[in-house]
Amino acid sequence: MIKQVGLPVEDARKTRHWHVLDDGRVQCDICPRFCRLRDRQRGFCFVRANEGGQIVLTTYGHSSGYCIDPIEKKPLNHFLPGTPVLSFGTAGCNLGCKFCQNWDISKSREMDTLADTAAPETIARAAERLGCRSVAFTYNDPVIFHEYAIDVAQACKERAIHPVAVTAGYQCSEPRAEFYRNMDAANIDLKAFNDEFYRKICGGELEPVLDTLRYLRYATQVWFEITTLLIPGTNDSDAEIERETEWIAKELGLDVPLHFAAFHPDWKMLDVPHTPVETLRRAREIALANGLRYVYTGNVHDKESQGTYCHRCGELLIGRNWYTLSEWNLTSLGHCRWCNAGCPGVFDAHPGSWGARRIPVRLADYAA
Fold first, then answer.
1. Predicted confidence band of residue 65 (pLDDT cuts 50, 70, 90)
2. Which of the chain's termini has less CB crowding within 10 Å, N or C?
3. Alpha carbon 234 to chain centroid, angstroms
């Protein structure tokens, strides 16, 4: 049963990005899927619906759960390292990735998945009281709960809490601009670097994601990092990794952190094996050879490949053991302590000490 904790008013469910078609259907313009809906129909994401000739967000104020995570788990290695982040998601997704590792949330069509509810101010207040430096929209894609994510972000900023988006970046240009005006950091899931993968395995297209990455780089001050989950036999060839990392170097620059994460069998791809650590290391070497300065491996224990190194002198700047910081060699200005070269990112004078803890949270205690 959903517990009521400061549930927003009905008007909060109204959305902005849609228009009425000549045949009376309403087109949702939040993402390139452009779902055209008759009254009472829901879009592909299942949470944006036509009710009475307008698109509403049926999950506004609802969550599939809250958890305090290390910021490195998002993954963000250059954004307030060592600090805790209050993470939450809702239900549904605007992509249909066959390998989804949060499929019980992102593919959910049941309100039973949404275990808690909270107004934006409640979430911001909870993050502040829990000592979290940021709030992350994650587990499923915040693109589909656009209005709720923005309202939470604005409430967080009033309390100096940083909004963080963990997203596939599959959105249209106008809502994208509105969305990122309210974010401080993001991790973009670049699922592959070929359109066939996106069409056949994700039910989407590559180019809108590349547009989002270009937009973040050239039109915002949002700190962002990129993650690519390498799936054996599908998107892990040397040629594809060459193309992806060459594109990042040319289009986005050498300083954007890139994470290669290991796949594990899930949802509709149970017959595909785990990603060998050697594949991740090979991908990292290709990226480094193409000039990228900050390349990491994820979902595996690979201490050497998870450290941050100075691009000038090669010394270890931030050591990591899974999600725990083991070494810190940045000055208070975010420079290398040996050669004084700058390290791009958002850093405090001293690292956080949250470590690898993950603590589930209920927001009922923060309603008042």
1. confident
2. N
3. 22
